[in-house]
Amino acid sequence: MKKENKTAKRIFGIVGSPRKKGNTHILVSTILDGAKEEGATTEILFLGDLNIRECDGCHICWKGKQCSKKDDMNKLYPKIIQSNVIIFGTPVYWYGPTALMKCFIDRFVYFNCQENREKIRGKSAVVAVPFEEETPKTASLLIKFFEKSLQYLEMNLIAKILVPGVSRKGDILKKEDRLAEGYTLGRRLARYHKD
Q1: Distance between CA atoms of 102 and 55, rounded to whole angstroms?
Q2: Collapsing DSSP states into helix, strand and coil, what is residue 44?
Q3: Residue 98, class by beta-carbon neighbours within 10 Å (0-12 exposed, 13-18 middle, 19+ buried)?
Q4: C-alpha separations of 177 from 53, 70, 109, 122, 130 in Å
Q5: In this structure, are residues 126 and 86 in contact, taking their beta carbons and an 8 Å threshold?
Q6: CATH number of the domain at 10-191, out of 1.20.1250.20, 3.40.50.360, 3.40.190.170, 3.10.450.50?
Q7: What is the SS3 assignment for 108?
Q8: CB 134 within 8 A of CB 165
């Protein structure tokens, strides 16, 4: 039985696309494969498999209490807290993230109070974004959304990987240079601040 390396980087990949084995899934998986190669502990999560309800602004979490929503997000907070790096993977939908990803990020309001802020502060984040159009400007509003949100949470956005020109399921497999970039990024994430 293989022992878990207690000092290994914990890298959590979030797939905000509703398509499994699609371009976002492949990109996030490739980054995680690179991280595993360097000994990181990795986990991938498909938001489409979960019941994550919208935040209704009740602010009970701001009082240091558990979120009032009885859904799957409450099981994810400990995973987020234990992670060293979170990879946010989403295609561009209407110049922003998917509804799945937006709902997930909305629930990060949990980390907005003094009691919970220290649980997210300083964590590293990566944004992985495949999209249909060829111009990188297509993703600029989505990237700005993540930059502002993560900055507000006092997280560190340490890398962005954009893959334009992918629409059909699996198109990203033709972008070997971008997948190689993702794999290398994963290896770098695992080595980052490694003891």
Answers
A1: 10
A2: strand
A3: buried
A4: 37, 42, 36, 30, 13
A5: yes
A6: 3.40.50.360
A7: helix
A8: yes
Coil, strand or helix: which one is 169? coil
pLDDT, mean of residues 150-159: 94
List CB contacts of 193: < 8 A, sequence separation 6 or more. Answer: none
The four Cα atoms 15, 134, 184, 124 give a dihedral, to 10 degrees, of -50
DSSP letter for 20, please: T
| Residue 107 to residue 121: CA distance in whole angstroms | 16
> How would you class 110 by CB atoms within 10 Å of its CB: exposed for 0-12, middle for 13-18, buried for 19 or more?
buried
66-111 pLDDT, tens digit each: 888 888 999 999 999 999 999 999 999 999 999 999 999 999 999 8
Distance CA 156, CA 186 (A): 16
State pTM to two decimals.
0.91
- SS3 of residue 163 by DSSP: strand
DSSP 109-157: GGGGSHHHHTTTTT-EEEEEEE-SSSSGGGGHHHHHHHHHHHHHTT-EE
* Tokens representing residue 25 in the block: 């899934």
